[in-house]
Write a structure and sequence with these properties.
CATH topology of the largest domain: OB fold (Dihydrolipoamide Acetyltransferase, E2P)
Strand content: 35-45%
Number of helices: 3
Oligomer: single chain
Shape: elongated
Distance between the termini: 73 Å
CATH class of the largest domain: Mainly Beta
Length: about 110
């Protein structure tokens, strides 16, 4: 009977430890610093968007590269030539909450720099 209690206690401790670790990993993404990303879409594939992105200070220099997106349905609405805005996070190369920008709005933003 003592052995059963020890095994049960070990299983409970292990289960709690795994649950706490999983919770800590989820929270660490919530604490990652976010940035606003702007760029011009050069290509849309079933895997992501190739974007000529502007510099995002503290995250990445201006460059053209292919990014995955958090919502695959975006790939059906965005097209080459669109100006986009998205949220990006430290340690993550995914574009979150991608929005197309009206041409006049994206031109105004660039003239403010």
């Amino acid at each position: 009977m003592n052995t059963r209690r020890r095994i049960l206690a070990a299983v409970l401790v292990l289960g709690c430890s795994l649950a706490m670790n999983s919770f800590a990993q989820d929270k660490s993404k919530d604490k990652a610093k976010s940035y606003t990303f702007h760029g011009k879409v050069e290509a849309v594939t079933d895997k992501g968007l190739t974007v000529n992105g502007e510099e995002v200070k503290g995250w990445m220099a201006a460059m053209t590269m292919t990014y995955t997106v958090d919502k695959p349905e975006v790939l059906k609405t965005v097209k080459a030539g669109d100006q986009i805005m998205a949220t990006v996070y430290d340690g993550d190369m995914t574009l979150h909450n991608v929005m197309t920008m009206p041409a006049e709005k994206s031109d105004k933003q660039k003239s403010k720099k």
